[in-house]
Amino acid sequence: xxxxxxxxxxxxxxxxxxxxxxxxxxxxxxxxxxxxxxxxxxxxxxxxxxxxxxxxxxxxxxxxxxxxxxxxxxxxxxxxxxxxxxxxxxxxxxxxxxxxxxxxxxxxxxxxxxxxxxxxxxxxxxxxxxxxxxxxxxxxxxxxxxxxxxxxxxxxxxxxxxxxxxxxxxxxxxxxxxxxxxxxxxxxxxxxxxxxxxxxxxxxxxxxxxxxxxxxxxxxxxxxxxxxxxxxxxxxxxxxxxxxxxxxxxxxxxxxxxxxxxxxxxxxxxxxxxxxxxxxxxxxxxxxxxxxxxxxxxxxxxxxxxxxxxxxxxxxxxxxxxxxxxxxxxxxxxxxxxxxxxxxxxxxxxxxxxxxxxxxxxxxxxxxxxxxxxxxxxxxxxxxxxxxxxxxxxxxxxxxxxxxxxxxxxxxxxxx
Length: 416
Ligand code: FIX
Ligand code: ZN
Hints:
about 425 residues, TIM Barrel, uronate isomerase, domain 2, chain A, binds D-fructuronic acid, binds zinc ion
């Protein structure tokens, strides 16, 4: 373990967390975006997926489960996965870890006591406390103007405070053309689905307006494993929009593009968010983008374990690619270790080892504790090997490396 990592304040560069100013169900705003507390922790989609695996359909079908109140859902999950079974999956263990860290009983027979503790907390002060416990200085959000609920909140003046950095998320512009063109037209940005007329201008105006409104630290989209980009002659909708509008506009506005590649949406639609899975993607598309847009910057994470080695090899060729995080199904101790070792061996310290992807505030506690421990072990091993090769590492160098990995690589990349 690396002691320097214990006290380091990290920047969490991708989450789905919000401040209380975006509303919270615990305060009666049922579609509020700030998720926290025991009911959200237990109904988190990673855990819900595990519940459906072991719950026969004739006991409760997914649609009937989702029709229950959040607290009834949480009660059922607690009983099935934490009482009747041992909570030893990474997601369940994470909830146990967060509860224990907050002084709550992970062996409780029911949720009454835990729920009452959470109901005594003020969401805003609780955010400070959880960030302090997790050692997180900044939470980077995911802000989606195509989501009606979120969109309305921004238009009605909701804004984050200085603990939260916005990120403008634009999946439909890349992945769902022409549906996105119809939406933009409906909102007053007249687009033609065939990219004729002033469509690129309309897309740029849309992006500019949301950049002005949100002041994002970068712009992001998640892409399916089938995403392709094959150079200047590629006439697919995604390539056309990236080349004609999105990347030029981001360059003008000095913003990096986050690409999260490999999510296969709605493999099992009945399960909602818990129904997504992954597929192996083709990193060649990324290499072409980095090559054709040398003045654009790409923050990249890929979802398939099979893609990790190739992503690193592409990043070795292009300084405008910054690999980050062990995303979603890769965020388990074993895979974080494997991927971090591979990155340290091939990229030195020029990457960002982890982001939390937290959707529920208290997840920061276990996700960052795991990341510090596992990345710390990988880093220690790399120092040991260096020492065997004849070069000791100094304490100030260890501190610098930790800062690079958990803050400075990202900060300098988005500010370049
Ligand atoms: O696209 C994303 O940002 C993904 O992280 C999410 O869609 C996903 O549901 C998730 O929570 C993964 O951790
Ligand atoms: Zn995410």
